[in-house]
Amino acid sequence: MKLWLVFLVPLFVGIFCQDKESIWKEYKKLHGKDYNEKLDGGKQENLRKAIFFKKDAKIREHNKGNHSYRLGHNQFSDRTDKELAGLLGTTSPPSPKLHKSMTVLPKRQARLPDTLNYRNSYCLPPVKRQGSCGSCWAFTAITPLEFDRCRKKKSFSVLSEQQLIDCDTNSTNKGCSGGWYVTAWTHLQAVNGSASEFCYPYEGLKGTCRFCAECKSMVGAKVSSFGYVQSMNATAMQLALQEYGPLATAMAVVGSFYSYKEGVYDDKACDNLPVNHGVVTVGYGRFNNTIDYWVVRNTWGRSWGDEGYILIQRGVNKCSIETYPAFVVAL
């Protein structure tokens, strides 16, 4: 028996290592990863592989349990914690007093439908990708403005996040180092316009401001008004979605969020934490008649989550997402 073990143990180890190597190669191929071993003797390759398999173990362990959401690999599975932090970029409101003073309830107290979802609306562009720039705040400001402008004009125009990164020099907004969406609307209102994406394309790094309010062909939309929806009131958010369309929201991101794949996200690790990421809430619903959720749009591309979207538990201020909801009205 001992002699058989001497032969079998190396065999099983070899098969296991071969399978891991195949998984790693397939992941790199799927996401276009290429770590040139000739440049550093394989150090980068080994680092990324170690991060990937550490993440793989967490994903497998989570998915074996009884959870309302599942995790999966994506383009971030081999990223360092520092690199992942660069995907965030929303700070808390510049003035809590201002937030409180601007809090409003929607004008119409209409009957709420059981579900509402703008995800497939003509007035929402394909999910965008912010890259390694901490500009989520700019995307969070622009998407609701694009939607409301489209709803009013009956035609769609993609607007420029890059304009905010380059031109909004308010002390709160710092380009790729973070900002706040309501402050961004203040800026767009002051300069009398948001540029079209065609005239001011996204570059993912801070540059020189090139916006020209007098150039009519450059301006894609203008801000009429904006404000916060009542904080930590899910019903007010639902009413606001019905009245204004998608809402700018902020949330607290923790480790599991990066690997979200499907289901209703309800990780307790993000509860009662300060917000650090801007997202757009585009709808709500109920999963399997058991869990209420928000439909939330991210800015990490379509290969993250459910083609760029996530369902987040509704009515419990999960990840602080019901703390700072805000609306914008296009002129």
UniProtKB/TrEMBL annotation:
InterPro entries: Papain-like_cys_pep_sf (IPR038765), Pept_asp_AS (IPR025661), Pept_cys_AS (IPR000169), Pept_his_AS (IPR025660), Peptidase_C1A (IPR013128), Peptidase_C1A_C (IPR000668), Peptidase_C1A_papain-like (IPR039417), Prot_inhib_I29 (IPR013201)
Stored SMART domains: Inhibitor_I29, Pept_C1
A Pfam short name: Inhibitor_I29
Domain Cathepsin propeptide inhibitor: 24-84
MF terms in GO: cysteine-type peptidase activity
Domain Peptidase C1A papain C-terminal span(s) in chain numbering: 112-329
This protein's UniProt keywords: Disulfide bond, Hydrolase, Protease, Signal, Thiol protease, Zymogen
GO BP field: proteolysis
PROSITE patterns from the UniProt entry: THIOL_PROTEASE_ASN, THIOL_PROTEASE_CYS, THIOL_PROTEASE_HIS
Signal peptide from the UniProt entry: 1-17
Similarity comment: Belongs to the peptidase C1 family.
Protein name, UniProt field: Uncharacterized protein
Originating organism: Daphnia sinensis
